Amino acid sequence: MADDIVAVTRADWRGEARDLIELATSERPVAELLRRGLEWLTRVVRFDLATLFLLREGKLVAVVARGPLASEQVRRHELRLADFPSLRQALETRRARAFTDEDHSHGDGDPFDGVLDLPPGHSCMVVPLCAAERCYGLLTLDRTECETYPQSVVDLVEVYGQMLATSLQEVEQKSTLERLHQREHEHARLLESQLGGDEVGVLETSRSPAVRELALRARQVAETDTPVLLLGETGTGKERLARAVHRWSTRAEAPFVTLNCAAIPEGLLESELFGHVKGAFTGATKDRAGRFQMAHGGTLFLDEVGEMPVELQAKLLRALQEKTFEPVGSDRTVRADVRILAATHVDLRQAISQRRFREDLYYRLSVFPLRLPPLRERLEDLPLLCAFLLEEQARRTARRGMKVTPEGLARLAAYDWPGNIRELANALERATILSRKRELGAEAFDLPARAPEPKRPPEPAPVAESGEEGSVATLEEVQRQHILRVLARTQGRLYGPGGAAALLGLKPSTLQSRMKKLGITRLEQYVATPPAPPGK
């Protein structure tokens, strides 16, 4: 034994084992791990050749070799496992064994026949590399001396083989997790793109000055970790903007996690936010991470935060201030580095006055508010929005190349869109499914009917179209002409039943805003001249 084992003390052995465990848990690639593993083996046992074979499709393929007899030919050596029953038996039994002179004479031959000129009866050992349910390959040790490795040496190297196999298993699991993470990340990025969370989209290319200013401010705040409060009516695209802010930020490669505070039952919302431990409540059969933990290092988007119960708002405030929380049923404090984006259509100041929302939480969330204008205030973006949404929907409907005609745009522009962009998306998808043509005209859109209009008086002369003869009027020109006609019918009256706002299906304030944008400023010039008395 003294000739086969390198002299080491018990303390040395513990140190060597500790080094191997450290090597096994390191972030090294497989090739480096195996090379360093054989270097470690030279400290423990004597050999002239140590070769690591990995199992690949029924073959043992040499991947690393150390010792005086190691050569490129050895490192490229391959064995068909079916040709060596003794090697197959070592893998099946998961036990290391030393070969004797009788094994060489009557067994299945030397694995290195034709590669090395080793004397009959030379020292040879085979060590399986197995961990859990998996066998990764074999380690072979050879010496030119004609004697058998003692069993004590075999037992020692067998322990080494088990440790090395465990390290291989660790590396394989890490590699598998990295591939899954990369696949999930790519899927998430694709999903974000499909959801309209792209970097440009219709924000920075908008024809609305208000939306372009919004995009500029969103890009500026995205570079920080400042909380952002997204305000706006339902369906204005708050989640799309939140995804864009995340992708513009330094956290873009980290998770983007969402939670709709209005969609989760009140009794489960705390668990959804902070997680819970097994037994915390009926049905909690195992520990479960909350959205804060899932979003660690990334962004947490709290949609409809104005609907959060008041009693839970205090815990959310603490999590925002201290970046710590306790899962439901646990006294263990968890830390999470999360950037918060929140959204609501609720008037939070009014909710504060009604004691439905904490004032301190409001000031914590609204460091940088961004208001998304409703669709009726950015109708100049209708053509761009329609093109964008139709392209997005083509993945679901398989109807590519669809577009809205000028008449269709005029029909859409005459509607008030209480559901905003979400309602527009639904109207377009419905029209795409029902229409047999690729062009969607006014007749393609089944929008709610308006109040019956009075008999039309003589209309003012149409506004001349710009450009070459036969060119199509712009959307602004179509809107302007339509409002002028309605004003003429109501003799310039905006308010009340039968007024211009009621006939157009708009709020009077919205109509005034649109008239200002279109340059319609003097109502009295649209009052029709009263008819002459009879007989005059």
TrEMBL record:
One of its GO terms (biological process) is regulation of DNA-templated transcription. Keywords: ATP-binding, DNA-binding, Nucleotide-binding, Transcription, Transcription regulation. It holds the Pfam family Sigma54_activat. The keyword Transcription regulation applies. Transmembrane segments: none annotated. CDD domains: AAA. Coiled coil: none annotated. This is Formate hydrogenlyase transcriptional activator. It comes from Cystobacter fuscus (strain ATCC 25194 / DSM 2262 / NBRC 100088 / M29). The lineage of its organism: Bacteria, Pseudomonadati, Myxococcota, Myxococcia, Myxococcales.
